[in-house]
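Technical note accompanying the year-one report. For the benefit of new consortium partners, we illustrate the data format agreed upon in the data management plan: each record pairs a sequence with a structure-token string. No post-processing was applied to the example shown here.
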Amino acid sequence: MLHDPDLASTPLSADAAARYRRHARDWLASHLPTHMRADSLDYRSPTLEESREWEAAMHQAGLAGMTWPTVYGGHGLGLREHLAVNQEVGALLMPDSVSSIGKELAGPIIMGVGTEAQKQSFLPNILAMREFWCQGFSEPDAGSDLARLRTKAVREGEQWRINGQKIWTSGAAKAHYCLLLARTGTVADRHRGLLMFAVPMDTPGIRVVPIKSIDNKDSFAEVFFDDVVVPDSARLGAPDEGWAAALKVLTIERATNRMYRPWRFESEMGFLVRALRSDPLLSRQLEDAGVQRQLGDVLGEIDAHKGLVHRSVDQIMAGESVGARGSLTKLFWSECHQAFAGFALSQVSQIGPQSSPLAQRARKFFTQAYLFSRAETIYAGTSEVQLDLIAQRILQLPREH
């Protein structure tokens, strides 16, 4: 638990915020299992139950749900404390959350447009890791352009009948609920007639088909909705409010979620350098001027990314809307990390069975990181979509006709 209970209930001074950061650093250092650290020789992929228990413990320690109201299981703190914890999380090569959809997307949306009953029902369970969520947005013909989605919701009295298909749905196989975006009108309506639901995944008519990804994992899935009936109480927000709620989701996803990324990338670079230095032959690579220049470029991009994160926090704290500037952050981190992962792979590809144990661990880590990075410029909105949003809404460039 928190060392000082007052930290979770009162606005923090600069000194108190510094103590909160130290609490996060000390707690993580003493509680994070060695086998969950990707730069440890003891590393192994944690089971779902191990991840659930770990994240529940983080919440109890005050390191999850920092900005959520205490009445819904949060800690009632501010965005700066959220950032401070993220910096400490990023400093360790620990696993990403297995409940990121619930914590980062479903939770904030429910707080924004949900009823009081929905907030009381869903939010505490998300933070306590009792319920997992998946995000039912993308479809085979409607990925980054959600205005083209075809999944249909038809009202029948006090219930809705849903038919359609979602794809690339992360965590669908383990999820208890789906944050589902469906259409009440026709595809020609585009942004109108969209509605969001909290759909229990055990509802009759839902079928989950796992998808094997390039990194040999099956965390993605297709989800089919065949005459799925849900009560009107499953609706999140008013009819026709789905598009506005979806935009809130995407703004959150692109600008404020996983603020630890630049600090995590910095940790990855440190791991790469340590691994190369651990082997006499590999350490010579670090003496190459080209390699040194590329590492310097990575450091510069990490610092720029940190600046974008801090700027977003300042804007939100000042009451400003991040809006399309979230697209700038998303474009920057995804492109930069994808490039770094490619550089890291070029270095670890020279690691063989005679190399040091740490170097061999690094080869496994960065091979997986490279494969996963191929998706980073696609999920949460493709780079092409981000460039279009930046051109239109930030630079206000004219459209070509």
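Partners are asked to follow this layout when depositing records. Strands lie at 133-136, 152-156, 159-166, 177-183, 194-200, 206-211, 220-231, 235-236.
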